[in-house]
Inverse folding.
């Protein structure tokens, strides 16, 4: 008797498994590899697609992917990942790439809410010119900024230092910038700095030796960042933070610790634009006789008139002239 039952259909071939994808934030860049922080706290090493480097070349950037970038990754079989997409940046901070005659933009960090310029009372001494460059950069990119003056413990018993630091605190606060006086050694101002960082993405920037990493360790001991000493001969710090690195904070939010910055060339700025990023000059500029006034030699300049009358800040104006001169020499990059 023949078997009249219908022939069984062959089992369908299993569809190839779709590559697993995830979204995260770039926590560290070492050049060709990136640490991507996933929402569950895992970190995974990733490479970037070659097309991103080509795009960076086209728009005159040195780095196609920056710390703070929100990215999509494809997980690979070897436990690493490939960055397949970079989300549009809400903010960024950039400087002129160091050591290039025909310079390009170097994006320091992306998608930050606030930038804190960290200086110290001594060892190394407070550098207002550096502070002003950081504040100008933050103003140019629409990022909130503040100043931290660390190592307040070194000021105890030094009346002249107290007066000098008090002057700078009053000056920057009068311009609307928050200023925190801190000491990682004594715990001064640590709670206030922690509150300022909580539930935000912030970057701390400053020269080597001002105590950025020590201060962040005081804010969140779980970070356990490497710290170093200041050279007694040069009074300059030694690099302990090697790469820009983003860390989650126990209290909420993220902070980017940065290597000590010695060269800080402004990017994509022309001499007539500079005054607009000094907050005290901004309301005066409309009263200048010439629309492209650079506020150093032109007749009918409202800014120089304010300085002459004593209503403008001489120290900040001197800083402005120094940056203006570097823009004209091409040490900073104009368009």
């Amino acid at each position: 008797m023949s078997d009249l039952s219908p022939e069984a259909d062959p089992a369908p071939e299993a569809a190839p498994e779709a590559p697993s994808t995830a979204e995260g934030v770039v926590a560290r860049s070492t050049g060709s590899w990136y640490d991507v922080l996933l929402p569950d706290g895992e970190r995974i090493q990733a490479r970037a697609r070659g097309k991103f480097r080509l795009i960076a070349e086209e728009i005159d950037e040195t780095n196609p992917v920056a710390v703070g970038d929100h990215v999509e990754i494809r997980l690979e079989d070897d436990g690493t990942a490939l960055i397949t997409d970079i989300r549009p940046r809400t903010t960024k901070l950039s400087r002129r790439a160091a050591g290039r005659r025909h310079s390009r933009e170097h994006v320091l960090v992306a998608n930050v809410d606030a930038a804190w310029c960290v200086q110290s009372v001594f060892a190394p001494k407070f550098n207002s010119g550096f502070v002003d460059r950081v504040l100008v950069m933050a103003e140019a990119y629409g990022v909130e900024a503040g100043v931290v003056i660390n190592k307040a413990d070194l000021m105890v018993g030094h009346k002249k230092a107290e007066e000098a630091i008090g002057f700078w605190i009053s000056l920057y606060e009068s311009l609307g910038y928050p200023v925190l006086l801190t000491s990682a050694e004594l715990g001064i101002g640590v709670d206030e700095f922690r509150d300022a960082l909580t539930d935000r993405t912030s970057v701390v920037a400053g020269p080597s030796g001002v105590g950025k990493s020590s201060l962040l360790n005081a804010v969140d001991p779980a970070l356990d960042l490497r710290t170093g000493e200041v050279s007694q001969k040069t009074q300059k710090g030694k690099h302990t933070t090697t790469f820009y690195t983003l860390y989650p904070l126990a209290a909420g939010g993220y902070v980017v610790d940065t290597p000590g910055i010695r060269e800080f060339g402004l990017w994509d700025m022309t001499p007539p634009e500079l005054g607009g990023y000094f907050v005290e000059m901004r309301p005066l500029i409309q009263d200048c006789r010439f629309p492209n006034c650079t506020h150093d030699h032109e007749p009918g300049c409202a800014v120089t008139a304010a300085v002459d009358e004593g209503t403008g800040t001489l120290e900040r104006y001197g800083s402005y002239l120094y940056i203006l001169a570097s823009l004209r020499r091409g040490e900073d990059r104009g368009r």
Q: What stands out?
A: The longest strand covers residues 21-29.
